[in-house]
Design a protein that fits this description.
Length: about 850
């Protein structure tokens, strides 16, 4: 029979895919001689088996689990769930990739009425506290019962006794809570609380396997490119207890500061508590320095383990520990989540310390984290004018402004409406992940620097302030009071994740700069990458930002974006409603100087770097109003009848704009558009050239699907460009190419390459046409596709390697066959996605193009691709 269960002594750090990250690291700590409570792992292969056989842990697997449990009983000298000192276990999830808080954990498993009463003879408070914790976790994780109903019981008894913290409850209070918990469980679950520890264990293992598919885990996997096929392992470990008395405690420690990167042990610690109290943010803990004051010896021991683990893993470590009656136990280690700024500092410091090479340091940084470093910061002058309304713990740096929002769905709605929000909660839970991702920042009343909100916010690059007890929160009425004023949902606030301050207004911000550690890391990346990085830029300001962040050219200038200013849109509308070519040319003549000026500004900024300019792409109906009142106003302004303009607007309507009369099809119908745009591009290039600026224009034809179609447009461009150059007696090299965004173009790339000098993959449209749905459509059903494991990720966020990727690969191969020196790039939104950039490197593209603010992300991702792809 296949082996599904492994003792800690049988594993090591290199078996993450089999044992999960948590399990493999527990095995490694055991190998290193650290004090790790004994246990075993049910593998990720067992998870696959569980789903294969109808979400059931088969008998063969159960036999292996109980055989391993017998070994642990012998090692620990205790019986599982029996005796005066029963063996209790924790049951924890563990994917090969760290997913903090996304899946489920059950602690104190094995407690039942008999073992509780036996334990109560020795330590009644500890016995009742451990049992009530177990019932609450089992009810929530295994049975899916509402945790808040159990919390309400505790809150009522604390209020009755006028106490604040759970640790202040005495044995009688806890016994009372335990009785009420069991009654509530029976009412909600329609069964008595299970008394057989073996039954408890198997139900918990099943629940952890099932949690791999819970909604928050599915969302987290999608956000972090984790395949659903990986599954989770289950770590089953003998419990050690931080909640026996005041000589016990629990905590979370990082080998370096995850917020700033400072090389100093950082963490939090609670006396008389279990780990969930710290990571769930239920109590606001003390800094790790408290442990140093209380027990210098234990603090030094923890420090030595942190140094050992950091040296072993060559990365900053996130560790969980428990102290049971003066003895330190290590319960977990993993590479710690950190802010973008901390990631950069840690990388640079570790290279300087000789712990990592430049290449290792580059591969250890998550490119997506750089987003947070590139986010704006509050303007210093503005900060001096505002007084904070409250202050908490600075859990994740960055400046965030937005409207107060108290629930996840509201945050998602606001993001869809392009409204910035700040998610405000008493404490976050894993179920809040979509709201956290949709918001600009997170603010919690409770919790510490290692709470769920803090850890997840750092991983997402969101500004976060936690433990802000200055706020008096009224979630029911969607408001809070701070600084003597009431703030309601929809009011503006700002949070500073670097200082912990909260402001009662939207503060102005300034752009980030590439300097210090950031500049050093980008310098390393530039040394090793092969892919060039360009930016999508439609204005001079965009081009300047791109250049500041290290762009090597412009990969996409969308000419239609230049049409929407008031004085320009009228000329475009005049062109649209024209009934003759002469009228259209007259209207286009009004637009030409505007386009020429815009192009010249971009050429001057880029000074010799390539600038790819795409001819008009969207259908013409996007430039005209559609509401009757707006049509009437426009008709009056253009001296037309309402009826005739209404007919024109209706005639332009596209049933499917994605596949309508747009792109090069507009030029085939109205060649004068290409004439005007080409003239503007080349005249701008000539003007810049004459001013001593080097120019490298690339003219891109959108939506081509046929060689003859491209040749038709190409001939118009070439004729116009050569006439302009001839008139000015100037010789400027320019190239004409196309976007590959129609599947037919990818399949016939060899034919099109006979005419086109470069290809740029427009993967937004290529994805739409390959899948048969648009980005707007996908929002209607994508959740069902995730939950049913049909899709693991949004194909508009990351390239679909299997489908769209095949088309891209084929187009590259066929294009190179006909034109070996053909330039290959990508200008869709995928050009800023690290996983997509790695794919682009693999298939031999020459450059990626992305938004200006993602240029550093792309530079780092390109370097990682060069270092990791053989």
């Amino acid at each position: 029979m296949k082996k599904f269960v492994y003792l800690f002594s049988e594993g090591s750090a290199d078996k993450k895919s089999l044992l999960g990250g948590k399990g493999a690291n527990l095995c490694e700590m055991k190998l290193l001689g650290l004090p790790v409570p004994d246990g075993f792992i049910v593998s990720t292969e067992a998870c696959a088996d569980f789903y294969k056989f109808g979400q059931k842990v088969r008998e063969q697997t159960q036999e292996q689990i109980f055989k391993a449990l017998a070994v642990i009983e012998k090692t620990m000298g205790k019986k599982f769930g029996e005796g005066e000192l029963p063996l209790l276990v924790s049951v924890r999830s563990g994917s090969r990739a760290s997913m903090p808080g996304m899946m489920d954990t059950v602690l104190n498993l094995g407690m039942c009425d008999g073992s509780c009463e036996s334990l109560a003879k020795i330590n009644p408070r500890f016995a009742y506290d451990s049992y009530r914790r177990f019932i609450q976790m089992f009810a929530n994780v295994v049975m899916g019962l509402d945790r808040s109903k159990f919390e309400k019981i505790i809150d009522e008894i604390k209020a009755k006794n006028n106490i604040i913290y759970d640790s202040e409850l005495n044995a009688d209070d806890l016994k009372d809570i335990l009785t009420k918990y069991k009654a509530l469980y029976k009412t909600m679950a329609k069964e008595e609380f299970p008394q057989n520890p073996r039954e408890q264990l198997m139900r918990a293992v099943s629940a952890v396997f099932k949690s791999w598919q819970n909604p928050r885990a599915v969302v987290y996997r999608r956000l972090h490119d984790i395949p659903s096929s990986w599954g989770t392992a289950v770590s089953i470990q003998a419990m050690v207890f931080g909640n026996i008395d005041q000589t016990c405690g629990t905590g979370v420690a990082f080998s370096r500061n995850p917020s700033s990167g400072e090389n100093k042990l950082y963490g939090e610690y609670l006396l008389n508590a279990q780990g969930e109290d710290v990571v769930a943010g239920i109590r606001t803990p003390n800094p790790i320095e408290v442990l140093k004051e209380q027990s210098p010896k234990l603090f030094e021991e923890l420090m030595s383990y942190a140094r050992l683990l950091e040296t072993r893993y060559k990365d900053m470590q996130d560790m969980e520990f428990t102290i049971e009656r003066g003895k330190l136990y290590m319960l977990q280690t993993r590479n710690g989540k950190r802010t973008g700024a901390a990631a950069l500092k840690i990388a640079v410091d570790m290279v300087e310390e000789g712990l990592k090479t430049e290449k290792e340091a580059l591969l250890g940084i998550d490119p997506k984290q750089l987003d947070s470093v590139l986010h704006p910061q509050f303007e210093k002058k503005a900060l001096s004018k505002y007084t904070p309304i409250a202050s908490g713990l600075p859990a994740s740096p960055g400046a965030a402004c937005g409207k107060i929002c108290f629930d996840v769905e509201k945050c998602k709605q606001m993001k869809a409406q392009k409204i910035k929000s700040i998610l405000v909660r008493l404490e976050t839970s894993p179920e809040d992940i979509e709201g956290m991702n949709a918001s600009e920042g997170i603010l919690t009343v409770r919790g510490g620097m290692t709470s769920h909100a803090a850890v997840v916010a750092r991983g997402m690059g969101r500004a976060c302030v936690v433990g802000c007890s200055d706020l008096r929160l009224d979630e029911e009425n969607k408001q809070f009071e701070a600084g003597g004023k009431v703030y309601r949902e929809g009011d503006d606030i700002s949070i500073d994740g670097s200082t912990g301050h909260v402001y009662g207004a939207a503060l102005p911000t300034v752009e980030a700069e590439v300097s210090g550690d950031f500049a050093i890391v980008l310098g390393w990346a530039n040394k090793y990458r092969k892919l060039k990085v360009r930016a999508n830029a439609d204005t001079k300001a965009d081009a300047e930002t791109a250049l500041r962040f290290g762009a090597e050219g412009i990969g996409l200038t969308r000419t239609e974006h230049m049409f929407f200013k008031k004085e320009r849109i009228m000329a475009i509308r005049e062109m649209i409603v024209s009934s003759t070519e002469q009228q259209r040319k007259a209207a286009l003549d009004k637009i030409l100087p505007y386009q020429r000026e815009d192009f010249e500004q971009i050429f001057r900024v880029m000074n010799g770097k390539p600038v790819t300019i795409r001819l008009i792409d969207p259908p013409l109906h996007e430039f005209v109003p559609h509401e009757d009142m707006e049509i009437k106003e426009l008709a009056k302004e253009m001296k037309l009848t309402y009826k005739s303009l209404k007919q024109t607007v209706q005639s332009l309507h596209e049933f499917n704009p994605m596949m309508g009369h747009r792109g090069c099809r507009l030029i085939v119908t109205f060649p004068e558009i290409a004439v005007m745009q080409t003239q503007a591009i080349i005249e701008a290039a000539v003007a810049a050239f004459k001013a001593g600026i080097a120019v490298h224009p690339e003219i891109m034809v959108p939506l081509v699907m046929e060689r003859k179609e491209f040749r038709f447009v190409h001939d118009i461009i070439k004729k116009t460009a050569d006439e302009v150059l001839g008139r000015n007696n100037v010789n400027i090299e320019y190239t004409v190419g196309t976007m590959i965004e129609v599947p037919r173009a990818a399949l016939l790339a060899d034919e099109i390459a006979k005419e086109a000098e470069f290809f740029s993959f427009g993967t937004n449209d290529l994805t739409q046409m390959t899948f048969g749905f648009s980005r707007d459509d996908i929002g209607k059903f994508i959740g069902d596709y995730y939950s049913n494991n049909i899709l693991d990720f949004d194909p508009f966020a990351k390239i679909d390697f299997e489908g769209v990727g095949q088309l891209m690969t084929r187009a590259c191969e066929r294009g190179k066959k006909v034109r070996p020196n053909i330039e290959l790039g990508i200008c869709g939104e995928h050009g800023g996605d690290p996983a997509s950039i790695k794919f682009c490197h693999t298939i031999g593209l020459h450059y990626v193009s992305c938004s200006p603010f993602r240029v550093p992300v792309a530079i780092l991702a390109a370097a990682q691709a060069a270092l990791s792809v053989k």
